[in-house]
Amino acid sequence: MTSHDRIIVDPDILVGKPVVKGTRLSVDFLLGLLAQGWPESEILRNYPGLEREDLLACWAYACEVLRDERIYSYKVA
Q1: Is 73 or 6 the better-scoring residue by pLDDT?
Q2: Phi/psi of residue 63, nearest 5 degrees
Q3: CATH number of the domain bearing residue 47
Q4: Torsion of CA 50, 44, 37, 33, to 10 degrees
Q5: Which of 45, 10, 42 has its CA nearest to residue 27?
Q6: What's the total number of domains in the chain?
Q7: Is residue 77 part of a domain?
Q8: Does 73 reside within a domain?
Q9: Rounded CA separation 69/72 (Å)
Q10: Residue 3 reports pLDDT greater than 70
Q11: Predicted confidence band at 45 (pLDDT cuts at 50, 70, 90)?
């Protein structure tokens, strides 16, 4: 199963933010918990509808988005 099977973008859910399919838990929210030091086990305990594969899908989604990101410089006339 790829991250695209578990992560969806739907304009009717959280204004189109990427979320774990079947939830209203956004990728950035879950990554934020991890960044704050929450252990994976604690996240899964607090959000029983989630599976470890959902968290892995969040990481994969973020990796893909950042890999494709490009920064361009330009001068304002």
Answers
A1: 6
A2: -60, -45
A3: 1.10.10.10
A4: 30
A5: 10
A6: 1
A7: no
A8: no
A9: 10
A10: no
A11: very high
Query: With contact defined as beta carbons under 8 Å apart, do 55 and 46 qualify?
Result: no
Of residues 16 and 72, more confidence is placed in: 16
Read off the pLDDT of residues 17-36 as tens digits, 9 standing for 90 and up: 999 999 999 999 999 999 99
d(CA 64, CA 51): 20
Domain that holds residue 9: 3-68
CA 11/CA 60 separation, integer angstroms: 21
74 domain residue, yes or no: no
Say if CB 27 and CB 61 are below 8 A apart. yes
Q: 2: phi > 0 → left, psi -120 to 50 → alpha, else beta; which?
A: beta
On whether residue 28 sits in a domain, the answer given is yes
Query: Which one of 3-12, 37-46, 66-75 scores highest in mean pLDDT?
Result: 37-46
Q: What mean pLDDT comes out for the span 40-65?
A: 95
Question: Can you tell me which residue has the tokens 């979320």?
Answer: 19
